Amino acid sequence: MYFHHLSQMTAREMFPGYFGKFIHTGTSTVAFWEIKAGSPIPEHSHVHEQIMHVVEGEFELTVDGTPQLLTAGAVVTIPSNIVHKGHAVTDCKVIDIFMPEREDYK
User: Domain for residue 6, yes or no?
Assistant: First the structure.
């Protein structure tokens, strides 16, 4: 499938407060998140490289021990196997790109 429209996709709550819509290409996954204020993501790492773009709101992210308050327009690159965690300070919209594809998000 070449064309997608987010309004025609159903969001899934993958973690408490994290509602995602996903596009899988075979080599990458794009995740479109709506995140409720106060929702945490615990410290973790994964084999996937990750690019995170905050579209709306404020998200506090700690990457490899370094915390940063991210606001709309912020972009973060997280290499494979780097420990990170965070939480939504406000309601947020975030886009994540993962390489390789996230099988666990299918």
Answer: no
